[in-house]
Design a protein that fits this description.
Order of helices and strands: EEEE
Pfam families: Ribosomal_L33
Protein name: Large ribosomal subunit protein bL33
Strand order of the largest sheet: 2-1-4-3
Structural class: mainly beta
GO molecular function, one term: structural constituent of ribosome
CATH topology: Rubrerythrin, domain 2
Number of strands: 4
Number of helices: 0
Radius of gyration: 11 Å
GO cellular component, one term: ribonucleoprotein complex
Number of domains: 1
InterPro entries: Ribosomal_bL33, Ribosomal_bL33_sf, Ribosomal_zn-bd
CATH class: Mainly Beta
Amino acid sequence: MADEIGLTCTECKNRNYVTFINKKNMDGKLQLSKYCKHCRKHTLHKESK
């Protein structure tokens, strides 16, 4: 089953995106470079609940 997670900006700490991951195939936390509309630039977004 896929679990729903939020992606939080590491600079402004706002939760900007929601995505699904399969916990059986993933080990560790998901980290993606995404656009933050609050910072107005691409920043690192980390997995949060």
